[in-house]
């Protein structure tokens, strides 16, 4: 008995420090210490809750399948792609929003999102609903770097920034909320010129990130935005099919972003920039929903599924579907958690895998 107990005590004493050592080793070996996110509602985890805008989703039924059934400001019934990506990299299963006072720099050392629903590359897009423009997200990022330096020490903070994965995901609103929805940009630019204008802003943004020490960057492509339920609902002429002209714009713009990626990888020493393109994955889901266990693709789960998002989704939520996992889209503009997970996996396999080892 006495001997056994001694062995037990010895092994416990031996075990605990070993485990600590192992987890410490895992932390220092990890190639991606943090996921740092810029963009729109595709990657906003709730920053808009803390600014005066109507582009919000921090109320029911949003988040009903999130941890604790809580609405957070994510435009989905559950998690968004960056949450899945963070988890796949062995970090937290969600990326916290920078403006939420519930979180502090100790949380943000492993991930943070500066994203703001309804924003775009174009300042004129973020102006429409008074959300956080991309340039302001960069200002927040500079503040974050200062706090990180104070928290980790300058040297470790710099190293963290250089090793962290920076994710950029926006652009849909520049076309659907701005160019094709309100007068202004369409009278100044042809669609192709507007794409070049946006790609120029993307280039400038990546150059600035690089100047601030970022080396691992994912530039996100546009989804087949003509297949979003809101666009299909209003596509009477083609029997509520996807709006092919919008899909073509997304394809053209993605081609430009892809070329930009090649160019910047060539121009900026030691940058590792990847183009993460969700287009094919979402297009396939929309066209072959049954292969993924989906039953509904042209309409969303929330409310009537035809027009609602944000507050209108909340108001009419009595009409919402029971099981969002049967739906490709949660509201008229945003995918369900299940779709987000599939897209995240696809992007991990096809683009982000190179940051995993
Ligand atoms: C957007 O606005 C900011 C702040 O006023 C400005 O610095 C930036 O040049 C603007 N971007 C474009 C492309 O006009």
Automatic annotation (TrEMBL):
Coiled-coil regions listed: none
Keyword Signal: yes
Alphabetized GO MF terms: hydrolase activity, acting on ester bonds
Record has Signal as a keyword: yes
Superkingdom in the source lineage: Eukaryota
UniProt entry keywords in alphabetical sequence: Signal
SUPFAM superfamilies according to UniProt: SGNH hydrolase
One Pfam family recorded for the sequence: Lipase_GDSL
Leader peptide range in chain numbering: 1-30
Record family assignment: Belongs to the 'GDSL' lipolytic enzyme family.
Name of the featured protein: GDSL esterase/lipase
The organism of origin for this protein: Lupinus luteus
């Amino acid at each position: 008995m006495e001997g056994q107990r001694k062995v037990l005590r010895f092994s416990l004493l031996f075990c605990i420090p070993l485990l600590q050592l192992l987890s410490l080793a895992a932390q220092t070996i990890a190639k991606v210490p943090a996921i740092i996110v810029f963009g729109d509602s595709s990657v906003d985890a709730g920053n808009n809750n803390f600014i005066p805008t109507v582009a919000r989703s921090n109320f029911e039924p949003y988040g009903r399948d999130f941890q604790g059934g809580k609405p957070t400001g994510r435009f989905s019934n559950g998690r968004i792609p960056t949450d899945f990506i963070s988890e796949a990299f062995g970090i937290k299963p969600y990326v916290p929003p920078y403006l939420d006072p519930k979180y502090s720099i100790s949380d943000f050392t492993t991930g943070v999102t500066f994203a703001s629903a309804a924003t775009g590359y174009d300042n004129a897009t973020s102006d429409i609903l008074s959300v956080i423009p991309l340039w302001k997200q960069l200002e927040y990022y500079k503040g974050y770097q200062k706090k990180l330096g104070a928290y980790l020490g300058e040297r470790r903070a710099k190293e963290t920034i250089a090793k962290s994965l920076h994710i950029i995901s926006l652009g849909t609103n520049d076309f659907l909320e701005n160019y094709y929805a309100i007068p202004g940009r369409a009278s100044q630019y042809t669609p192709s010129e507007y794409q070049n204008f946006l790609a120029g802003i993307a280039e400038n943004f990546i150059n600035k990130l690089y100047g601030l020490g970022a080396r691992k960057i994912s530039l996100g492509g546009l989804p087949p935005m003509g297949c979003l339920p809101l666009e299909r609902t209003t596509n009477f002429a083609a029997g509520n099919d996807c709006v092919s002209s919008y899909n073509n714009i997304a394809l053209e713009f993605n081609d430009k972003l892809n070329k930009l990626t090649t160019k910047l990888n060539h121009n900026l020493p030691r940058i590792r920039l990847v183009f993460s393109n969700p287009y094919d994955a979402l297009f396939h889901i929309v066209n072959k929903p049954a292969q993924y266990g989906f039953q509904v693709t042209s309409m969303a789960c929330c409310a009537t599924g035809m027009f609602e998002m944000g507050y209108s989704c909340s108001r009419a939520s009595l009409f919402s579907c029971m099981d969002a996992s049967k739906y490709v889209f949660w509201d008229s503009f945003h995918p369900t958690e299940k779709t987000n997970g599939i897209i995240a996996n696809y992007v991990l396999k096809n683009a982000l895998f190179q940051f995993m080892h």
